[in-house]
Design brief:
309 residues; 7-stranded mixed β-sheet; 6-stranded mixed β-sheet; 8 helices; globular
Length: 309
């Protein structure tokens, strides 16, 4: 996990995960250096990660006043309880549902929780943060926010994209990714992370994009994409295509076994080396359907669950 600046008063704590057959997925957290400092999500909880140490390189954890949990998935909560212990004045910003989900793992002290819904705002001393529901999400407790002072949209999972390398995924600028490559990767991520969008018609999904269009942020910070400056319009145009994108069909057991066989000592690269299980290239849409799998009936979409949540 490394730290780098995104604008004058935001630090990105960047990390990534390899997802076999998909690519490398950024897993970012953020520090908003407001008068009352805000940490946005807390990274991965893997044994070799030390979120608190990385945070401590840019801010004394004891100074943190708010922990904005965009939603309680495990790639957002890895350092949460360590940070709560190190930041005795900090409160977790989440929803009633988010607090309930978190409490199934470990009790949350009610005096450390601040419940905030989309459409409400939070005063952090020198600015007001405006909560909203991002257009795409995989968890019903998801709440992003817009900071008008820095003109930054914190979008949680929305606008994410698996990328070809860890270097790109942990990079400082999404513009380092080619326009067509980014478009394909964002549509792939939409199919993986928010498969429900494919049950909608374009006209039904369009209004969900309006709040971000009206914000017109200079910078979009997604947990699963490098910082995206000056790309808002283009990325919204990409998301508008999500309802009609191909559904993601993950590898089945036979594909997994072929992939694992390629990792055995002495095994040479197979015919699909470097490609996702099933042979599809990153960003090229779903893996081909096995011959034994019946296509969905007309008007219905495949419902095979994705590899990642």
């Amino acid at each position: 996990m490394t730290a780098h600046k995104a604008g004058r008063d935001i630090t990105v704590l960047s990390d990534s995960l390899p997802v076999p057959g998909i690519g490398f997925l950024a897993v970012n957290a953020f520090v908003l250096h407001a008068r009352e400092p805000v940490v946005v999500d807390t990274g991965l909880g893997l044994p070799d990660r030390d979120f608190l140490s990385t945070l401590g390189s840019v801010l004394d954890p004891g100074d943190v006043r708010w922990i904005w949990l965009t939603h309680p998935d495990r790639d957002h909560t890895g350092g949460l309880f360590a940070l709560l212990a190190a930041a005795p004045k900090a409160r977790i910003v989440t929803t009633y549902l988010g607090a309930g989900i978190m409490s199934t793992e470990r009790p949350l002290p009610t005096d450390r929780v601040f419940l905030l819904n989309p459409g409400q705002s939070l005063d952090v001393g020198d600015r007001t943060l405006h909560a909203f529901r991002p257009p795409l999400y995989d968890n019903p407790a998801t709440v992003g926010f817009y900071d008008g002072r820095s003109r930054t949209c914190f979008s949680s999972d929305c606008f994410g994209a698996p990328l070809p390398s860890a270097e790109l995924a942990e990079g400082e600028d999404a513009r380092a990714v080619g326009a067509e490559e980014l478009r394909a990767a964002q549509l792939l991520w939409a199919a993986i992370d928010s498969p429900w969008v494919q049950m909608l018609e374009d006209r039904q999904f369009g209004p969900a994009l309006t709040p971000v269009r009206e914000m017109d942020p200079d910078l979009v910070l997604s947990v699963h994409l490098p910082p995206a400056a000056g790309l808002t319009g283009r990325m919204l145009d990409t998301l508008s295509l999500a309802p009609g994108a191909d559904p993601f069909v993950g590898p089945d057991q036979a594909a997994l076994e072929r992939m694992l066989a390629g990792f055995e000592p002495g095994a040479g690269p197979g015919p699909d080396a470097g490609a996702p299980p099933g042979g599809a290239a990153l960003g090229a849409g779903p893996a081909p359907r096995p011959a034994s799998e019946e296509p969905p009936a007309p008007g219905r979409r495949a419902t095979t669950p994705p590899v990642v949540a």
